[in-house]
């Protein structure tokens, strides 16, 4: 028994020694990663279960891919915490495909075969060489196809085009042609880039001076055109809009409405006019009624229209008592872009009395209470459905009780962030529940509370950070019922989108 264990240990040691996975450190990272035309890097933590499950597959894939000249590497984020932080690693494992130091997320499977196949495909040219025989088929081979027309494949334009193609090889289809017959068939004079799409305009030529085109210009241009003028949004494509960060204008419709297409035709010209500045979508109002409500469209009445500033989380609904009108929608969007429009702020009614020691904050009172410079303020932003918030309640109540005597100097508050919007004057947005924010008396800044959610830690935090004197506090408050984890629930928990 002991003998075989020793043997196993030896065998493991041998495997570890023979590993084809490179270990990266702060000293070697740039030196080893930057020169590689293609490399897969795993950022991992030794305690992470998914990382452990991946490890043997990763080793095996590294051995197979070594033959093809593709390297696999890893970074231990416990030993090299700074390196991982510098690289913006937020979860484990994080897998990235690097090309000469530039990376994209690895989007393949996590089995050895899957890794080998994905990385092998990544090593093939991202750009197909197109001639007369393949042109007709190629330009309709995908939803979005980019084709570069050049006199020579070694042109500067070809290099920029290839760089974009390498970066977006998983997103769009790319081709290059030097064939004069293709120029003729397409009616194009090189150098040129054309985007073929299966929606909106089928053929779009790059409209800016092509001689100075960089891969970044090309990337921006394709990304804009990849978003249809007025597509239906749903769980599958929502991320495309969220990631673009651009304001999102929603047309809520009842899909069974006989006039649905009429409404779409009404909004489409406005959507086309603001293309590139504001993304327009239509959405099923029946299925996503809760989403409409969260965007401050109180009535389940379709069609309805609302513009949302995704970065600031501000909402600009179209008056639901008015009929949908293209000119009014245009005016709303223009007013927003010019910064002339006030966002709609949802708020519960101001409570007639504050019955408990924790202050019940609503949107309408936010400025008055939180920006009262004579007080230290500690606010919990919660959602009624959030389990972590429910578990925090007893502790938060005890905290209120503890400082009930010094209410004039320290306000312990809570706000239902699903029923109350933050005013635009607030420099942060809520990204998960619960969110705990502390503001010192006299200060404009909000301090995040990220500590553990025990009464003891919350009290220590307050005592260390409050500007006002907190003497006369209530020491008789009972201890909290249980200790808490630091977990937070995502914002969209109950939103289908
Ligand atoms: C761009 O890619 C094409 C197709 O793979 C290749 O033939 C061409 O040499 C590349 N050009 C440059 C400048 O990298
Ligand atoms: C007080 O606030 C600072 C942030 O400004 C934080 O680093 C510190 O940990 C806080 N004190 C306690 C006891 O948590
Ligand atoms: C002190 O805390 C206890 C327990 O929560 C509470 O019953 C009592 O009313 C508080 N005292 C004051 C003066 O607020």
UniProtKB/TrEMBL annotation:
CDD domains hit by this protein: PDI_a_family, PDI_a_PDI_a'_C, PDI_b'_family, PDI_b_family
Chain positions covered by the region annotation Disordered: 466-497
Disulfide bonds: 48-51, 386-389
Signal peptide interval: 1-18
GO biological process, one term: protein folding
Intracellular or extracellular location(s): Endoplasmic reticulum lumen
Residues in Thioredoxin domain copies: 3-149, 344-467
Record keywords, A-Z: Disulfide bond, Endoplasmic reticulum, Isomerase, Redox-active center, Repeat, Signal
Entry's EC annotation: 5.3.4.1
Family the entry assigns: Belongs to the protein disulfide isomerase family.
Purpose: Participates in the folding of proteins containing disulfide bonds, may be involved in glycosylation, prolyl hydroxylation and triglyceride transfer.
Any one annotated GO CC term: endoplasmic reticulum lumen
Protein name per its UniProtKB record: Protein disulfide-isomerase
One function term, GO molecular function aspect: protein disulfide isomerase activity
Reaction(s) this enzyme catalyzes, per UniProt: Catalyzes the rearrangement of -S-S- bonds in proteins
């Amino acid at each position: 028994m002991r003998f075989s264990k020793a043997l196993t240990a030896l065998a493991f040691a041998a495997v570890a020694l023979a590993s084809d996975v490179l270990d990266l450190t702060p000293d070697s990272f740039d030196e080893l990663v930057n020169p590689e035309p293609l490399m897969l890097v795993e950022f991992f933590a030794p305690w992470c279960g998914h990382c452990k499950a991946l490890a043997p597959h990763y080793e095996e894939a590294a051995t197979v891919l070594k033959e093809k000249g593709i390297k696999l590497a890893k970074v231990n984020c416990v030993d090299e915490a700074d390196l991982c932080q510098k690289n913006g690693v937020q979860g484990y494992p994080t897998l990235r495909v690097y090309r000469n130091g530039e990376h994209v997320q690895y989007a393949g499977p996590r089995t050895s075969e899957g890794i080998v196949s994905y990385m092998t495909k990544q090593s093939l040219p991202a750009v197909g060489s197109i001639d007369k025989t393949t042109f007709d088929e190629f330009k309709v081979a995908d939803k979005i196809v980019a084709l570069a027309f050049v006199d020579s494949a070694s042109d500067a334009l070809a290099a920029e085009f290839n760089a974009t193609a390498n970066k977006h090889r998983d997103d769009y289809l790319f081709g290059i042609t030097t064939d004069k017959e293709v120029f003729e068939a397409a009616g194009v004079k090189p150098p040129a880039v054309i985007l073929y799409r299966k929606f909106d305009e089928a053929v779009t030529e790059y409209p800016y001076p092509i001689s100075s085109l960089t891969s970044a210009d090309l990337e921006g241009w394709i990304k804009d055109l990849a978003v249809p003028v007025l597509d239906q949004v749903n769980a599958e494509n929502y991320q495309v809009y969220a990631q673009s960060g651009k304001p999102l204008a929603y047309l809520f419709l009842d899909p069974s409405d006989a006039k649905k297409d009429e409404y779409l035709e009404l909004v489409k010209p406005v959507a086309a006019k603001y293309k590139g500045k504001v993304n327009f979508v239509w959405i099923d109002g029946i299925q996503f009624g809760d989403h409409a409500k969260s965007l401050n469209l109180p009535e389940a009445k379709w069609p309805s229209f609302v513009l949302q500033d995704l970065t600031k989380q501000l909402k600009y609904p179209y008056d639901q008592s008015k009929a949908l009108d293209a000119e009014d929608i245009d005016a709303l969007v223009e007013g927003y872009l010019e910064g002339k429009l006030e966002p709609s702020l949802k708020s519960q009614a101001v409570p007639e009395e504050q019955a408990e020691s924790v202050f019940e904050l609503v949107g309408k009172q936010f400025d008055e209470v939180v920006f009262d410079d004579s007080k230290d303020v500690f606010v919990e932003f919660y959602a009624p459905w959030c389990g972590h918030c429910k578990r925090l309640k007893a502790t938060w109540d005890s905290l209120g009780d503890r400082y009930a005597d010094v209410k004039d100097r320290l306000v312990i508050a809570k706000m239902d962030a699903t029923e109350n919007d933050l005013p635009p004057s607030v420099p942060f947005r809520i990204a998960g529940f619960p969110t705990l924010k502390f503001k010192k008396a006299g200060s404009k800044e909000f301090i995040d509370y990220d500590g553990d959610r025990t009464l003891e830690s919350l009290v220590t935090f307050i005592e260390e950070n409050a500007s006002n004197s907190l003497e006369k506090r209530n020491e008789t408050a009972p201890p909290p019922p249980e200790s808490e984890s630091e977990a937070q629930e995502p914002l969209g928990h109950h939103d289908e989108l």
